[in-house]
Amino acid sequence: MRTRQILLVAGREIRQRLRSKAFVGTTVLIAVVVFAGALFVLAGDELFGGGDDAPAVGAVATGPTLEVAVVGELPETARTALDARLGQPPDYRDVADEAAAREAVAEGADFAILDGGRRLLAPPAEGPFVPPVPPGVSEALGVATALDDAGADADEVGVALRAAPVQVDIVETGAGVDADTAAARFGVAYVGSFFLYLALIFFAQMVATGVIEEKGSRVVELMLPTVPPRQLLGGKLIGLGVVGTLQIIVILAPALLLVLLRDPGLLPPGVGAAVVSVIVFFVLGFALYAGVTGGLAALASRVEDLQAVVMPLWAIIIFAFFLAFPALNAPESTIAVVATYVPFSAPFVVPVRLALVELPLWEAALSGLIVAVTAVLLTLFAARLYEGSILRSGGRVGYRTAWRGARD
Questions:
Q1: Residue 363, class by beta-carbon neighbours within 10 Å (0-12 exposed, 13-18 middle, 19+ buried)?
Q2: Could you say which of 36, 155, 210, 318 is the most buried, measured as most Cβ atoms within 10 Å of its Cβ?
């Protein structure tokens, strides 16, 4: 009987959400954005990839000829260094003094060279990630000056600056991965943890809003004669959990299928386990946080009181999410390992570690078991708060009042 009541409430929640045009529209929109992102990644080589015409290592890609103001004599070694670094000779313009050089820069010159290449004048940077002078220019002039002082001629400077980097061969040691795989894994881990955080916040907030709306509209008073409070909360959690899991699958599946069909090599080893872990730990994290959210939300009588009631839980979620960042930087660090077994942080940390390192299956399983047991205990606690406060109105209900108001 209880199972049937829970399933009836869960079915009601599922139908209610799937009939919501806003919910369906948002899900489709996010899925389209993720799918478009996958298309962009697949087309990246064609849109931006290099080829035989790519600039040599150590040279800036050729483009419009740079205008460079020069005060005094500029050694041939410095000119050769700039030519090697820029990929083409700049347009040198002699000016009388530093004041004239500043004026030239203000009027549009890319930069000015003073003291034989030992000083540069440059305009303000165009943005926070744009250097004031082309990359490597100041370093090239510094090398040229040092070589010139050591007696090297211009040809020797040019050869030195155009030298190709030495080849690096990776020795397989059984640990670590290549740079491309590491970058791809980091991207999967970062996106997965952030997506999981947003999904948990969104659906936990949906539980809280649903509880307070039903309490405020007195709908719950019509349902309680046939469905006990604990079954009502359980059905709500199961229904929204199913909806949330379906939403994650709908959002991620098209993009993953596209990549698998077009270029499976783009997916780094272990990404499948990471994606599965995101879904699994969403279910566990939802059970952990949403149940408590439902119990806390029942303590409020108005929407205005809701945020104050659930704020302590939101603080825990945010703190737990931030523990994923140390795991992103050092997945085998002490804080990452400890956070794996803390139930509140495990839903965010375990998918990150699965994406970045070869996490033993038993560690992930043990972490999931800890989260599941904690979720059951907290949901039982929240169900008692829910039962003791869902019919109380007129103000915020205290924890002790709600606990005592529930049936034993």
A1: middle
A2: 210
Burial of 51 (0-12, 13-18, 19+ CB in 10 A): exposed
At residue 69, φ and ψ (nearest 5 deg) are -85, 135
> What are the Cα distances from residue 305, in Å, to 202, 239, 389, 402?
18, 25, 14, 16
> What phi, psi does 111 have (nearest 5°)?
-170, 170
Closest CA to 151 of 85, 74, 75: 75
What pLDDT band is residue 119 in, cutting at 50, 70 and 90? confident
In three-state secondary structure terms, 114 is strand
Per-residue pLDDT reduced to its tens digit, 45-88:
555 444 444 444 444 445 578 888 888 888 888 888 888 777 78
Each residue of 248-274: b (16+ CB within 10 Å) or e?
A: beebbeebbebbeeeeeeebbebbebb
Q: Is 365 helix (H, G, I), strand (E, B) or coil?
A: helix
Are residues 246 and 14 in contact, defined by beta-carbon separation less than 8 angstroms?
A: no
The H or E element that residue 95 is part of is strand 91-95
The two three-digit tokens of residue 359, written as one number: 């996490």
Sign of the Cα pseudo-torsion (73, 78, 80, 82, in order) = negative
- For the record, the structure tokens of 67 come out as 């205008």
Return the residue matching tokens 């839903």: 347
Let me know if 57 is exposed, middle or buried by CB neighbors in 10 A (0-12, 13-18, 19+).
exposed
Rounded to whole angstroms, how far apart are CA atoms 91 and 65?
7
